[in-house]
Specification:
about 160 residues, Pnp Oxidase, Chain A, 8-stranded antiparallel sheet, 8 strands
Length: about 160
């Protein structure tokens, strides 16, 4: 399925991540997450690398993940319940064939697929059972929070 979740009209206010102070804080947090075993706020974290839709520059974002089978992961474009989809989601939509993840000791090229219908509902149930904060994020906004399945690409030979 295409990445096509529109922005909402209401939701939590998301902090803007521009400026030198925010960039310094982001780099500090990324180092801390890696040192602490790729965990943050009680959640497993991967580093998602996308290509900027406007700039063409690689962008790395720490994102909580949930298991989706062998060499597959679920992520949620929640932006903490903001009315807007996160930038990494819009980058995925623009460049779905250029996505990588970093996990402890592994860097992988992945294929990203936005879930819908029954598969999304089943995964959403598992996600909210594991982390109730995502149900709260959904209550804050009127957009449906996109659930993305990342699947490792076979190694190139």
């Amino acid at each position: 399925m295409a990445f096509d979740t529109p922005a909402g009209t209401r939701g939590a206010r998301a902090p803007r991540s521009s400026g030198p102070v925010m960039r310094w804080i982001s780099r500090w947090m990324e180092r801390r997450i890696r040192r602490k075993g790729y965990r943050l706020m009680g959640m497993d974290v991967l580093f998602l690398t996308t290509i900027g839709r406007k700039t063409g520059v690689r962008r790395e974002t720490p994102v909580a993940w949930f298991p989706a089978g062998q060499d597959a992961w679920l992520i949620v474009a929640s932006a903490a319940g903001s009315p807007r989809n996160p930038d990494w989601y819009r980058n995925l939509a623009a460049h779905p064939d250029q996505v990588w993840i970093e996990l402890p000791g592994r860097k992988l090229k992945v294929v990203a697929e936005q879930l819908s219908g029954a598969p999304r509902a089943e995964c959403w149930q598992r996600i909210t059972a594991a982390q109730s904060r995502y149900a709260k994020y959904q209550q804050k906004t009127d957009r449906e929070l996109p659930v993305i399945r990342l699947v490792a690409c076979p190694p190139e030979s």
